[in-house]
Amino acid sequence: MGLPAESEGLAAFALGLHFATNGVHGLIVDAATGEAVGAAETVYPNGVDGVILDDGDPDLARQFPDDYRWALAKCVKAALKRAARRKRFKAKRVIGIGVCATGSTPLPVDVNCQPWADETIFQDEPNAYAWLWRDRTSQAEAEQITELVAREHPEYLA
Fold first, then answer.
1. Of 33, 123, 135, 138, which is least surrounded by CB within 10 A?
2. In-domain check, residue 133
């Protein structure tokens, strides 16, 4: 059994999105052949290459959550525009979207699951931003936890 659009003699496409450390990468492929028909990359607009740094704390690495939304929209529009150069491509023929991202990026949210950084009172508070994989501001606490676990439950570290 083929793809739904194939039964109508039409090409079907898939959109892949990767939320990387510095931006969003998008790729549109022909679902039947795997041929790339459109690609785009959008760097997050804030910070240094999309990463909020602090000259006073070299261990800090954060991001503004709104950068993800902004870059997503810009990247998808650019990938669709590039794919549209192909005669057989139609945006309405995108039948699937795949997303990948670093799953270890904590983001403080309120009781309604809205990012704290979206609230005016926290806009200048780095602790309200998304914490990147390379943020080491809690290294001392991590070492303390590791020492406790080594003492109390060394099997967890095996």
1. 33
2. yes
Q: List the strands of the sheet with 13-19, edge to edge.
A: 36-43, 23-30, 13-19, 94-101
| Structure token pair of residue 152 | 């109390």
User: Looking at residue 2, what is its pLDDT?
Assistant: 56
Report DSSP letters for 136-148, one per residue: -TTHHHHHHHHHH
Q: Is residue 136 part of a domain?
A: yes
Residue in the block written with tokens 């602090």:
54
- Domain presence at residue 1: no
Instruction: Say which DSSP state 109 is in.
Output: B
The CA–CA distances, whole Å, from 7 to 83, 95, 113 equal: 22, 14, 41
Q: Which domain holds residue 41?
A: 6-157
Is 112 part of a structural domain of the chain? Answer: yes
- Encoded amino acid at 112, one letter: N
Per-residue pLDDT of 105-152, as tens digits, reads 999 999 999 999 999 999 899 999 999 999 999 999 999 999 999 999
Residue pointed to by tokens 């669709």: 80
Q: How many domains does the chain have?
A: 1
Q: Residue written as tokens 């676990």? A: 149
Beta strands at 13-19 and 23-30: parallel, antiparallel or unpaired = antiparallel
